[in-house]
Design goal:
The chain has helices at residues 39-46, 51-57, 137-140, 143-159, 174-186, 199-202, 235-245, 266-272, 284-296, 298-305, 317-329; strands spanning 2-10, 13-20, 28-36, 60-61, 65-72, 83-86, 89-90, 107-108, 121-123, 128-130, 166-170, 191-196, 210-213, 223-228, 246-254, 275-278, 308-314, 334-339. The chain is α/β, with parallel strands linked by helices. Helix 4 (143-159) crosses helix 5 (174-186).
Length: 341
């Protein structure tokens, strides 16, 4: 079966290439329907990666956040027409200690391995999660980034001590919004405080108990644990501010990605006996838990729908380019391509 793949061959240049899909294999064939653009996709598309990295990765189909429709499932795990969330992390081995998303041998779609910007995608059945009826597929298209928050919270639950009266989340963007939303559902008795820099964005956190501008934090405020969701150039300021306001023996979860080393106040880390851990990507277990929570708490999907910046029908390479250009100018919200291929 001939498949059309839309590969980025150089920055801002997408070309059609063809591949073969083996319809006699045990894998499931899925037609992508809604594809969400991520910052990582943009860095490749705009050429904002080191030239050596681009030379190693390209040509490559972008997009690692998507839902699709099952076309063929030879093992009977799904029915044709089922809507499924596709998991980009693809492990090649199992380890009883290390999770699949941390194994160095695992592959990740749209990172040196073709993503979901294809006419059809062939995946093992364990790389798919059935989306229950009634859940908005546009919201579900960015389940991957939501599952990263769920993964970080699961790790936090295993690592952090049991005093969880107040949790602080630094950042007022999409990652902070998702993380704090799920924290509030999983720990309804905990006071959830958001720390950001843009008043308009902080106003969107309607489910949080308190919101603060980072320049106006009360001197006597303390948090038991914290999540850093800032990343980039703001990582240093955010992490060191957390160290200042966190209570002794608290846990700091780092989710923000920075391209450069970040200096932190290790003296106070030692004095307070703090635990710091990082989380990256997610695995099947996190996807399953995320989708279960969509079904269990319908208002989660309603809140996440506010994170949709725009849905753009895509039928051509020109449409793809326009979607990426729109997204790079969009100050807030996810750009989702309605894949009409």
């Amino acid at each position: 079966m001939l498949n059309t793949v839309y590969r980025l061959t150089q920055p801002r240049k997408i070309e059609i290439e063809f591949s073969e899909i083996d319809i006699f294999s045990s894998d499931v064939i899925v037609r992508p329907k809604y594809l969400s653009i991520c910052h990582a996709d943009q860095r490749y598309f705009q050429g904002n990666r080191d030239a050596k990295v681009l030379a190693q990765k390209l040509p490559m189909a972008l997009i690692h956040e998507a839902v699709g429709e099952v076309v063929h499932a030879p093992d009977g795990s799904f029915k044709p027409g089922d809507t499924v969330v596709m998991i980009p992390n693809t492990p090649t081995e199992k380890d009883e200690i290390i999770a699949e998303n941390y194994l160095r041998s695992s592959k990740f779609r749209a990172s040196g391995f073709d993503g979901f910007m294809q006419e059809y995608v062939q995946l093992p059945s364990d790389r798919l999660v059935l989306l229950p009826d009634g859940i908005d597929p546009v919201v579900a298209s960015f389940t991957e980034i939501v599952s990263v928050s769920v993964h970080a919270i699961s790790r936090f639950d295993k690592i952090a001590h049991s005093r969880r009266n107040t949790i602080g989340i630094w950042g007022d963007g999409i990652l902070s919004y998702m993380t704090s939303l799920f924290l509030k559902k999983l720990y309804p008795e905990t006071k959830i405080c958001i720390f950001g820099v843009v008043p308009k964005k902080l106003a969107d956190f309607t489910f949080a108990d308190e919101t603060y501008l980072t320049t106006q934090i009360p001197d006597d405020l303390g948090v038991d644990h914290a999540f850093e969701c800032v990343g980039g150039n703001g990582s240093q300021i955010a992490i060191n501010q957390i160290i200042d306001y966190i209570n002794p023996e608290g846990t700091i979860s780092i989710l923000g990605v920075s391209e450069y080393p970040v200096p932190i106040n290790t003296r106070m880390v030692l004095e307070k006996g703090l635990h710091i851990f990082g989380s990256s990507r997610s695995g099947r277990e996190d996807f399953c838990k995320t989708v279960e929570m969509y079904a269990q708490y319908p208002d989660i999907v309603e809140h996440l729908s506010r994170m949709v910046g725009h849905v753009r029908p895509v039928r051509s390479i020109k449409d793809i380019t326009e979607a990426f250009d729109f997204d790079v100018q969009n100050t807030f919200g996810k750009t989702v391509m309605k894949w009409e291929k």
